[in-house]
Structure formats: structure tokens, C-alpha cells
Specification:
Largest sheet: 2 strands, antiparallel
Radius of gyration: 26 Å
Structural class: mainly beta
Number of strands: 6
Shape: elongated
Strand order of the largest sheet: 1-4
């Protein structure tokens, strides 16, 4: 008897290079569910071809405009209007630029 399953795997953002994914059939401590069996030496395997991981593209944040008020004095609290845009291909961490 056997089974097949699909898993979703998140690749860390800063990984770059060739990596193998391993599957453990009876990982100890995983929910405290270990199966007693006659041969535990064959419970781990990896794919035969490494995954080629490329760094995610970085954002390129650019300030495209800055507009202070026309008149103000020292000690004043002013409103400063500005525009920042992401001109890169990567996603910016700031929700307003996604």
C-alpha cells in the first residue's frame, strides 16, 4: 500500500542556488505521530534533480515628487506631500506600494 500527496512549500526569500527538497515519511516529533516499523533507514529521500532557485527581484523605491507648503515659519507643523513609487520588479514590503 502507498499514497501520493501534494504539499505547498514556501521557498525562503533570500535563497539562491541549487537545493534539494527532502521528504521524511516518519518524522519524529511531527505531531508526536511516529509509526513503529521494521526498517526506518528508508524513510527519507530527496528528488533526483536539484531545484534551481533564483533570487527574487528587488523593489526600486523612488521619490518622484516632494511638495512642501509655500509659506511656513520655524516651529510650525507643516503638511508635506510626497509621492513614492516602486519602479522595480520586486514587491515592496509597504502595503501601499503593492
Amino acid at each position: 500500500m502507498s499514497y501520493s500527496q501534494t504539499a505547498t512549500v514556501k521557498i525562503p526569500r533570500d535563497f539562491n542556488g541549487n537545493y534539494y527538497l527532502f521528504v521524511d515519511a516518519n518524522l519524529k516529533g511531527f505531531g508526536n505521530r511516529t509509526q513503529q516499523e521494521c526498517n526506518a533507514s528508508n524513510n527519507r529521500n530527496r528528488g533526483t534533480v536539484p531545484l534551481s532557485v533564483t533570487l527574487s527581484p528587488y523593489p526600486d523605491l523612488q521619490v518622484s515628487s516632494v511638495s512642501p507648503p509655500a509659506n511656513f515659519f520655524s516651529g510650525d507643523t507643516i503638511k508635506l506631500n510626497f509621492t513614492v513609487r516602486n519602479a522595480g520588479f520586486g514587491t515592496a514590503a509597504d502595503e501601499r506600494l503593492k
